[in-house]
Amino acid sequence: MSNPDSFIREVTEEVRRDRLFGFVRRYGWIGVVLVVGVVGGAAWNEWTKAQRTAAAQAFGDAVLTAYDAPDPAARMRALNAIEATGERAAIRRLLVAAEAQEAGDRAAALAALASVADDTTLPARYRQLATLKRVALAGADLPAAERERLLGPLANPGQPLRPLALEQLAVLRIEAGDIDAAVAILRELVDGAEVGPGLRRRASQVIVALGAEPRAG
Fold this sequence. Notes:
Layout: H1 2-66, H2 72-80, H3 86-102, H4 106-117, H5 124-138, H6 144-154, H7 162-175, H8 179-191, H9 197-209
Helix pairs in contact: 1-2, 2-3, 3-4, 4-5, 5-6, 6-7, 7-8, 8-9
């Protein structure tokens, strides 16, 4: 009985090999495509990563070169000449605004900040920062109602710039003569866990200047 059993096993294995080879001949190209896709995808990822790194380095080098200029006006011109898109363009415009302000060109600074704040294609962090700086720089030249509208979303709980937005809202309350409301906002800053020591100190000083105590009671 052993010879027939051995023969059957050999035939069965042969049939399996034939089926396997047939499967490979019919569908083996799929495996080749998958391998090529994996290798090609890895190569593409490495190439795009290298391109992003090179672009970031080139942008950083251009910014550093711009800051070699001797004065704010020259630095502003050099920064404006840097080609950039997306987030790098937002960074460049924020830097231009800072240099324009230092150069005394308030209009150029406000225009650069507005161009970032109003660009809905940018991430919220750039737009919020530009909005806050624009409100602070414009001051009373921007109507109080407009400043209130712009600052409101930034002052919501959980927003990263909330403490600074609250400080600007306190300024609005002082301008309007609502000292009690201003003191209440400033006390919130004094007691806020997320508030830095510099801002907490400023808030305390303003409260005292308004004739109140930094903490209620």
